[in-house]
UniProtKB/TrEMBL annotation:
Keywords: Membrane, Transmembrane, Transmembrane helix. This is Winged helix DNA-binding domain-containing protein. It comes from the Bacteria. The chain crosses the membrane at residues 288-309. InterPro entries: AlkZ-like. Pfam families: AlkZ-like.
Length: 363
């Protein structure tokens, strides 16, 4: 069976809770999405606001302080928020790609460092307490004073399962990132050998149907084809002939289902969940949205990325990629007013920067 981009788009939006705001609790929504990209502090809050019928900043903050949700390095070696129960198996599964990323970034600088010793020392320094990366780095420098300081700090973070205790990850709270040992914070050991099939199943439930390359792009894992092909999954093809996999009982959305406008935050996992992202945007739009390691915040019109946005000093600036229908502009204005209120600027201003004019126009 062949699936066109419209069916893939609507099915993806449905599984991402973006066709209609969901009555799920924030905890269950995070579980549904596997993890929320948390490179910056506020985007996970915006992402849940766009997806849930009822959500406040305190809802997520209380989950972080209650240790039901944790923030740490996970998918693609980047910061994510995940359920504590999911972190216990996700983090061990991510060790191989995290070790590769560490080697690529700091292998030369740490060539004379015994990594097993570094892990033991880092664990010892963190036992029973919380340290910032600079504090941990300085302690490790006592053992390796000739090694590049940044390489020691980042190597410890990559090789030792640590989480960032609140207020790290809390709305509008930046500053130094505190580390604490994951097993101490959670009060439980991490899984020894979690099955890869668990990750594939969870991914497809949130992002499917998808190809092997899509799963690998999202997770940072490699060589998944034998695992996925051996699973009892349903197979489709897209219009380009690529094989797409899905859960056997997962429904597909109808291609004519209306898709409301939605605001996606910076680094939202939906934008980086596929090797082929044409179900969400054109290749030209991808070049504007995904610049190096940065994923800009976007807004969706009719389910497709139609521009980028930013909030600064009470102004929500919308930068569409091209002309928008009046109805879409009205919907964006209404949704944008809600976004401003959520961000703490209920009397804020909506401004448009039209690509052909290169200037801002208030609306």
């Amino acid at each position: 069976m062949k699936l066109n981009r419209r069916v893939l788009n609507r099915t993806t939006l449905d599984r991402q809770l973006l066709l209609a705001r969901s009555p799920l609790s924030p905890l269950r929504a995070i579980e549904r999405l596997v993890a929320l990209q948390g490179q910056d502090v506020n985007p996970p809050y915006y992402g849940l606001w766009s997806r849930l019928a009822s959500f406040t900043q305190e809802d997520l903050t209380s989950l972080l302080y209650g240790r039901q949700v944790v923030r740490g390095s996970l998918l693609r070696s980047t910061q994510h928020l995940a359920l504590a129960d999911d972190y216990l198996w996700l983090r061990p599964m991510m060790q191989a790609p995290m070790s590769r990323a560490r080697q690529a970034g700091f292998g030369r600088a740490t060539g004379e460092v015994d990594l097993d010793e570094l892990v033991t020392l880092a664990r010892g320094h963190l036992a029973g307490r919380t340290l910032t990366r600079p504090q941990l780095r300085d302690l490790l420098l006592e053992r390796w004073p000739e090694v590049e300081p940044m390489a020691l700090g980042w190597s410890a973070q990559a090789l030792v399962p640590v989480v960032h205790a609140p207020p790290s990850g809390v709305w509008n709270r930046g500053g130094a990132t505190p580390f604490t040992l994951a097993e101490e914070w959670l009060g439980r050991p991490l899984d020894d050998a979690p099955p890869i099939e668990r990750l594939v199943t969870r991914y497809l439930a949130a992002f499917g149907p998808a190809s092997v390359m899509d799963v690998q792009m999202w997770s940072g894992l490699t060589r998944l084809r034998p695992v996925i092909e051996a699973m009892p999954l349903r197979k489709y093809h897209d219009t380009e002939g690529r094989v797409l996999y899905d859960l056997p009982d997962a429904p597909l959305a109808e291609e004519d289902v209306p898709a409301p406008v939605r605001f996606l935050p910076a680094f939202d996992n939906l934008i980086v969940a596929y090797a082929d992202r044409t179900r969400m945007m054109t290749d030209e739009q991808r070049k504007a949205v995904c610049v190096g390691a940065v994923i800009f915040p976007t807004f969706l019109v009719d389910g497709i990325v139609a521009g980028m946005w930013d909030i600064k000093d009470g102004v929500l600036e919308l930068r569409p990629f091209g002309p928008l229908p009046e109805r879409a502009m009205a919907e964006l204005a209404a949704e944008g007013a809600g976004l401003l209120a959520f961000a703490g600027a209920p009397g804020g201003t909506l401004a448009w920067r039209h690509p052909s004019e290169g200037r801002r126009a208030s609306a």
